[in-house]
User: Which sequence fits this backbone?
């Protein structure tokens, strides 16, 4: 398995874990809501029920966003390589490795620190379309592209 494939696999696992956690939280909230409906404590009961419904709506929105990220990540074929930076590229720079995919933050894979960033991020927008040897400056930081996989 190549480094890029390991990175892709790691972030897919991370997303699947987040989905599982959110689904568990939603199941717990649903159960709490069912228990609340058995209570008849007046205003206090209605407030608690309303809070549960708001929390469920928030968690459903988070779940929807993570499922969309998973879909975007699944569209990337880590076996493909390009000579210029595209969605799915693993970019080696003088500042470290970046995986152009979805914004999932920093991870250490095979002893290498990698940041998954989206093409819509400020750095992502500047990197898309560049080739090995190109440079880009963002917030006073100069990134030199040393390799693209």
Assistant:
């Amino acid at each position: 398995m190549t480094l890029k494939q390991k990175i892709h696999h790691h972030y897919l696992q991370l997303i699947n874990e987040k989905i599982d956690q959110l689904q568990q939280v939603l199941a717990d909230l649903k159960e709490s809501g069912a228990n609340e409906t058995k209570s008849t404590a007046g205003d206090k009961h209605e407030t608690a029920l309303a809070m549960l419904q708001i929390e469920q709506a928030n968690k459903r929105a988070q779940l929807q966003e993570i499922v969309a990220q998973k879909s975007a990540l699944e569209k990337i074929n880590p076996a493909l390589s390009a000579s210029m930076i595209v969605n799915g590229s693993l970019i080696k720079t003088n500042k470290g490795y970046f995986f152009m995919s979805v914004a999932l933050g920093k991870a250490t894979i095979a002893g290498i620190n990698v940041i998954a960033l989206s093409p819509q991020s400020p750095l992502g927008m500047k990197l898309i379309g560049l080739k090995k040897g190109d440079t880009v400056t963002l917030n006073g930081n100069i990134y030199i592209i040393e390799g693209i996989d």
